[in-house]
Design brief:
The structure is a homodimer of 116-residue chains. With 116 residues, chain A is mainly alpha-helical. Chain A contains 6 helices and 2 strands, in the order H-H-E-E-H-H-H-H. A two-stranded antiparallel ribbon of chain A has the order 1-2. Chains A and B meet through helix 1, helix 3, helix 4, helix 5 and helix 6 of A and helix 1, helix 3, helix 4, helix 5 and helix 6 of B. The first copy, chain A, binds a DNA duplex (30 and 30 nucleotides) through helix 2.
DNA sequence: CAAACCTTGACAAGGTCGTGGTAATGTTGG
DNA sequence: CCAACATTACCACGACCTTGTCAAGGTTTG
């Protein structure tokens, strides 16, 4: 049975045992399990836990932020949708299509009708 | 003074006025202001608000998720740090450096000493 | 001017996050 | 066998997210 148990891993990584279980629950770190269900932390997990802790502290992130980044990283569809929205912004007035303005004017006039 | 006022914008975008202010506060949408401080929504903002709403619904995201994505998008440093951490994972046992294993064994032995 | 609109600021309430406990139960190792 | 440790499943609490609503005060416009 190779791997540290949860309390040992807690000691060397600086996470609490409680948090190690929580981190696992977020999907950010997966552990092996012994035959009877004990979590076993190998050197990779320990390293990952240490660097994760650093990452969170350095940029003041939450686990949920990193979890979302993982989601972004895993889904091309999500990533391009979000990126697409973000890049929609830098449009300057000149770049706005004519029918956007048209729709806009319609809205402005509609409001007059609506208020009647 | 061109641009819809907040209630008009709310009508055509499906957001509540309260949420329009909140969205603005997250930094995801910026509005012009009239001389007296009224928010003015132009066609770009309206379009962005509609697509944002769609994006959130489609992937079940929160505004904070998109805000974080914006942060990722804006900071090369943050992006590469997070990405770096995420890509640290796919290391297979064979790829783990020897001194990681060494450190690992040291830890395992240290724990015996520590418990004495 | 008065009604209808805007602003910011605050309180509220239900949800999730991060974290610590405790309890009940199974496992390990001397 | 028994002490020390693991597991899951809860309760709890403070902080923040999302929303709504209300108050006190300026603005626009018929």
């Amino acid at each position: 049975m190779d791997g540290l148990t949860i309390n040992e891993a807690a000691q060397t990584t600086g996470w609490s045992p409680r948090m190690l279980r929580y981190v696992e629950q977020t999907g950010l770190i997966a552990t092996q399990r012994s035959a009877s269900g004990y979590r076993l932390y190998g050197p990779e997990q320990l390293q990952r836990l240490r660097t994760l802790k650093e990452l969170l502290a350095r940029f003041d992130l939450g686990l949920s932020d990193v979890a979302f980044a993982a989601r972004l990283s895993a889904s091309e569809e999500l990533r391009s949708a979000v990126q697409g929205w973000l890049e929609e912004q830098p449009r300057r007035p000149d770049d706005v299509a004519a029918d956007d303005w048209l729709r806009f004017e319609q809205e402005k006039h509609q409001r007059l009708l609506a208020s009647a």
